[in-house]
Amino acid sequence: MTSTRSMRMLGALLCAAIVFFVTTAHAADKVRVVTTISDLKSLTEAVGGDLVDVESLTRGTQNAHEAEIRPTMMLKLRRADVLITNGLALDSWVDVAVNGANNSNIVSGAPGRIDVSPGLPILDVPGGRVDRSMGDVHPHGNPHFSLDPGLAPQITQNILDGLLRRVPQHRSAFEKNRQAFLARLEESMAGWTKTMAPFRGAKVVIYHPQWIYFLTRFGLVQAATLEDRPGIPASPSHLVRVIEQMKIEKIKVIIVEPWNDRKLAARVAEEAGAKAVVLASMVGGVKGADTYIDALDYNVRTLAEALK
Amino acid sequence: MRKLIALAFVFVSIALASPAAAQQDAEALRRELDQMRKNFETMQQEYRKSMDAMAERLRRLETQSSEGAGSRAGAAPAPAPSQTTVQTPASAIDLLSPRPPFGLYGQRASGQLLFDMGVAGDFVGNLVQRNVDKASAGTFRGQENRFFPREVELSLFGQIDPFARAEVRIEAGEDARGTATNLSLAEANITLMTLPFNTQLKLGQMRNRYGWSNQIHEHDLPWTDRPGVLRAYFSDNGVVEKGAELTWVADLPFYLEALVGAFNGDNDVAFGRGRISEPLLTGRLRTFFELGDEHGIQLGTSVAHGLTADRRRSTLPGFDVRYKYRPEGWLHPLVTAGGEGVWSIRRAEVTRDVTIDTDADGIPDTTLTLGNHRTDTRFGYYVYGELQPFRRWAFGARYDETEQLVRGREKAFEPYVTFWPSEFLRFRGGYKLTERSSDVGFSTNQATARHVDEWFLQATFILGAHPAHPF
Questions:
Q1: Could you report the predicted ipTM of this complex, rounded to two decimals?
Q2: Lesser CB count within 10 Å: N end or C end of chain A?
């Protein structure tokens, strides 16, 4: 009797071990990539295709500047072959999670660490002295470059170069995926440019200064921000000035990030006779913005509709 | 006539001879040109090969340097005339110039450091009753009814090289009324990050990872003061030791971190032996679960075991829990709750005097002191909850209950409100009611302090870099 029970227990343990190893082996076939933000997840999936398994540490509805370091992040990083970061101090919090992950593949300087910012034309680079009286300013420039579809070729090139350091044998597959993605993006880009063409030169107000790349790409002008300075909540006097400016300049739209105070934006828009629209500041920021192209498509369509 | 005929002959000869010579010259030139073209193509190919090799090398160096130096190296030079400017692409000369880590000094701008630096200032004011002041029995002993710099901390941290990072914290603070502000080394340690088997080693002087709150610096605590149980069983500053901690993160479907440490045991409240040859040994297990995207709970258990100055065993097991609820899309948690419990189990000597009648005359004529050992077990804990309905405001309360090491019990209740004008500036106001049992012997200066009412005001700022805090 005891022997039978022992055999059953042994059998159950063996089954569990087989399931565990099969699951692990399945995962081991793919390159395990972790990105700090969801835009990079989508772009990495576009380049890596079926050869990569990508997870993002933050969701599109979160403010990527202020991510809370959870041990689950460390768990994801613990198993990662590659970590892809945005750079320009947007996601410098990731170092704390990396420190807790005990994974030498992805520490600063390791081949598995990819920063996608090199080689990009950076906007909003502060000139002269920089200090916190300017708010939560990024001394190396505005880090929200992924909102410009025109920079996707360089970003995906940086991702490709980084992935090839880990898995050079997949070069042709990655390059093919990237070219296919860029072709799709180019096709969409033609449509977006056409949609936004009537609004070139139009002024918009934004909540947090993270839309400059997107606006510049489509020829729109950032007239003001609802935040007094980056990361500093708006004072009543600042809001009064913004409302006054919107009325004088007949500004029709306030762009709000999904994580920001939508009620405040709606109140200001109502006072100024404008509309507050929530755009996807990252992939997954709003419903239907599940991929990089979908997110930009949503943003272009929503903004164009609001500007009419 | 003859002359004319001769002249005509010469002209005709020349006229006939010229095309042949020109043809020969053209042929020679063509050959020369072909040769030059070949040479040029060969040279071009050689140059192309050299340039390709150089570009490839450059790409590798750039990749290494950009990742080695983080995003800073990747960012193009900053100076720009206006707020919104476009960085021009790097020129060929820019591309060929050395990059970090091969040309760090040449690459960096004036005043640019290769590590992060920050200053945190923490000022505390407290108001207590006169008898508590007289007995020096407030939370900040010797600083009752004062506003003082509790901790001004200079932090320097960053990568040493691709394999290790370092952290140095130097702090100054006023420890007692009217004394000079002391400067001390709060922490200085290196972390080896690329060890095998997913381990990490931290060496030097550090805040021990014992429980949740001990590793948090004073200015980052969610309360004005450190919880009573840590103050009673370790010190007002918790436990800071010199030694090493090795951590390992298990490859499991859930997060599990294991830690072992060996330290000198300098903390003279709990240990005091102060020798690495008879070390203070620590251990910790930490796990974390997410309940959906909005709820997170961290569970930990810790132990510290060492010898006291008189070589008696002292063991402190403990546990900690921390929970956060952050609604979808919120920038901050709405609810945070947590607590820690610690046992102090230490050997103590108990003596008693025995009188002996050595000559059996019925009159005791000598006294012997008999010693015996016993184990003293004490327990203390705290629980707290915090509600943050607005981004800039949080309201919370902490309850402490601690059995004192010698005798007696202390209970405290501390509600507080915190306001952040920005991420880098914080004000906190709080009230603390402390009740001590009658046998807690506060009678310094012939005053007692069984019942303590305290009001706190705390102002904290951060200049420069400050690392993010884990959950």
A1: 0.76
A2: N
- B2 vs A306: CA distance, rounded Å: 103
Q: Which secondary structure element, helix H or strand E, spans residue B27, and what is its range?
A: helix B2-68
Q: Which of residues 394-453 of B touch A (CB under 8 A)?
A: 422-424
With both helix axes pointing from N to C terminus, report the angle between A236-249 and A262-272 in degrees, rounded to the nearest 10. 50
Q: Could you tell me which residues come within 8 angstroms of residue B368 by beta carbon, excluding any fewer than 6 positions away?
A: B353, B354, B355, B356
Is the CB of residue A34 less than 8 Å from the CB of residue A53?
no
Work out the minimum CA distance from B34 to partner chain A, whole angstroms: 39
Task: Note whether B142 and B162 are within 8 A (CB).
Answer: no
Task: Decide if B392 contacts B420 (C-beta within 8 A).
Answer: yes
B155 Cβ contact partners less than 8 Å away, ≥ 6 residues apart: B116, B117, B118, B119, B120, B167, B168, B169, B465, B466
Q: How many residues does chain A have?
A: 308
**Is B78's CB within 8 Å of A125's CB?**
yes
Per-residue confidence (pLDDT) for residue A265, from 0 to 100:
93
**How far is C-alpha A42 from the chain's CA centre?**
9
Q: Cβ distance B375 to B348 under 8 Å? A: yes
- How would residue A138 be classed by pLDDT, with cut points 50, 70 and 90? confident
User: Coil, helix or strand for B412?
Assistant: strand
Closest CA to B416 of B396, B387, B389, B398: B396
Q: Is B121 exposed, middle or buried (0-12, 13-18, 19+ CB in 10 A)?
A: middle
Residues on chain A touching B329 (C-beta within 8 angstroms):
61-62, 258-259
Considering chain B, what is the average pLDDT of its residues? Answer: 82
Residue of A26, A59, A68 to mutate, interface with B, max B Cβ within 10 Å: A68
CA–CA gap between residue A253 and residue A235 (Å, rounded): 20
Q: What H or E segment, with its residue span, contains residue A267? A: helix A262-272
Of A89, A109, A165, the CB nearest to B71: A89
Tell me which DSSP letter residue A92 carries.
T
Does an H or E element contain A31, and which?
A: strand A31-35
Distance CA A48, CA A43 (A): 9
Note the pLDDT of residue B242.
97
Of B114, B111, B110, which Cα lies nearest the Cα of B101? Answer: B114
- Give B219's contacts (C-beta < 8 A, 6+ positions apart): B120, B121, B122, B151, B153, B460
Residue contacts between A and B (CB atoms, under 8 Å) = 185
Tell me the C-alpha distance between A67 and A132, whole Å.
20
A123 touches chain B (CB under 8 A): yes
How far off is chain B from A244, nearest CA to CA, in Å? 23
Yes or no: say if A83 and A94 are a contact pair by the CB < 8 Å rule: yes
Beta strand extents in B57-207 (DSSP E only): 116-128, 146-161, 164-173, 182-192, 199-207
Q: Cβ A102–B200 below 8 Å, yes or no?
A: yes
A72-76 own/partner pairs: CB under 8 Å, 24+ apart = A72/B255, A72/B288, A72/B290, A72/B296, A73/A97, A73/A101, A74/A100, A74/A101, A74/B249, A74/B255, A74/B257, A75/A101, A75/B249, A75/B254, A75/B255, A75/B288, A76/A34
Whether B349 and B312 have beta carbons less than 8 Å apart is answered as yes
Residue B117 has pLDDT above 70, yes or no: yes
pTM of the model: 0.75
Half-sphere exposure of B191 (CA within 13 A, CB side): 26
pLDDT tens column, B162-187: 899 999 999 999 988 877 888 999 99
The residues that bridge with B380 in the sheet, in sequence order, are B342, B402
Which position has the token pair 């934004």? Answer: A206
Torsion of CA A213, A218, A222, A227, to 10 degrees: -50
3-state secondary structure of B211: coil
C-alpha to C-alpha distance for A291 and A40, rounded to whole angstroms: 10
Cα–Cα dist A281/B109, whole Å: 32
Is the peptide bond prior to B101 cis by the omega test (within 30 degrees of 0)? yes
